[in-house]
Amino acid sequence: MQKNIFRIKLPQLHSLGYSNYSLINKKNGAKIGICGLYIREGLDGIDIGFGILPVHEGLGYAFESSSSIIKAGFEELEISEIKVITNKEDISSQRILFKLGFNLKGTIMLPNENGELLLYKIEK
Q1: How many angstroms separate the Cα of 87 from the Cα of each of 6, 93, 97, 99, 111?
Q2: What does pTM read for this prediction?
Q3: Fewer beta carbons within 10 angstroms: which end of the chain, N or C?
């Protein structure tokens, strides 16, 4: 599985200049989660995604890392808008998205997904 992840993400990093990044605890070097920008099949545009390991949820890491990725996307990569999708039941992620300034745009069905997802967008 790990080799498949690298096969997908490294070409995106080399061709587009962005991908996903590991979040590492500064104090002990432990992995906290991931955050990054993606090209997602079935979604027009650039998508931000984050995943925090359960033991580290609720500590602000998703907000902090997403804020940094959004800022870099707008300022350094000159991206004009960033989208994000989430499950309808994922209220904690929806709160983070609202705090980050994302606006709900509707729902979307992606290939190989079982249900509708909420679609959010933020513009530069």
Answers
A1: 25, 9, 12, 17, 15
A2: 0.83
A3: N
Architecture per CATH, domain 2-123, reads as: 3-Layer(aba) Sandwich (3.40)
Q: Bridge partners of 117?
A: 108
Q: Are 110 and 92 in contact (CB under 8 A)?
A: no
List Cβ neighbours of 109 (8 Å cut-off, separation of 6 or more): 42, 115, 116, 117
Mean pLDDT of the chain: 87
For the stretch 69-104, pLDDT in tens is: 999 999 988 999 999 999 999 999 999 999 999 999
- Alpha-carbon distances, residue 39 vs 18, 36, 50, 58, 59 (angstroms): 10, 10, 14, 27, 27
Burial string for 33-49 (b: 16+ CB within 10 Å, else e) reads: bbbbbbeeeebeebbbb
